[in-house]
Amino acid sequence: MDGAYVTVFEVSYWSNGTLLLSFASLVIGVGVTAGIVSGKFKMERVNRYLALLLWSTPWIGMATFWMARTAWNASEFRAALEEGTCQIAEGPVVVVRASSKADQLQIGGTLLKVNHAVLGLSYRKTVAHGGVLRDGVQARVSYFRGQILKVEVLR
């Protein structure tokens, strides 16, 4: 061992495909709305207005919010890493509790949670899903507001 840490995960705008998925959701909403407005879907005028009001407006609104919030989080997380305002836990990994949905880890005395069930930008690979944060691994983890932003392991 040469004592060098290797980065295996670092948060970005494209982490876990979250921003891309939110953008795809917005595109679907706009596409269906265009189909409703143009008459591609055979429906009466009243039903068309109801579809726009009850489906298109909430869908596009939520997709826009999701995409904007994801971009905001990515910007905030990147800034925390670059400015050094995130906290760092370093030491051997102890898996306190493991499941396919979430792992609870202790790294250098700090309790952290890796949640595979929540779609987001932060690290989410549990041990059951091929995550590198396993018992005994020497790791350095940068985290911010409970979200793991960077994972480095000793090689």
Distance between the termini: 6 Å
- Going by helix content, strand content and strand pairing, the class is alpha+beta
Give the C-alpha Rg: 21 Å
Order of helices and strands: EHHEEEEE
Shape: elongated
The major beta sheet can be summarized as: 6 strands, antiparallel
Beta-strand content estimate:
25-35%
Give the tally of structural domains.
2
Overall number of strands:
6
Helical fraction equals: 25-40%
Describe, in short, the structure shown:
The protein has helices at about 20-40, 45-85, and strands at about 5-10, 85-100, 100-105, 110-115, 140-145, 145-155. The chain is α+β, with helices and mostly antiparallel strands. Strands 1-6-5-2-3-4 form a six-stranded antiparallel β-sheet, covered by helices on one side.
Structure description:
This protein is 39% helix and 29% strand. The chain is of the alpha+beta class. The chain folds into 2 domains: 5-10 and 87-154; 15-83. A 6-stranded antiparallel β-sheet has the order 1-6-5-2-3-4, with helices on one face. Helix 1 (18-38) packs antiparallel against helix 2. The chain is elongated. The model has no long low-confidence stretch (mean pLDDT 95).
What key phrases describe this protein's structure?
155 residues, alpha+beta, 6-stranded antiparallel beta sheet, 2 helices, 6 strands, elongated
How is this fold's topology laid out?
Elements: E1 5-10, H1 18-38, H2 45-83, E2 87-98, E3 102-107, E4 110-115, E5 138-144, E6 147-154
Helix pairs in contact: 1-2
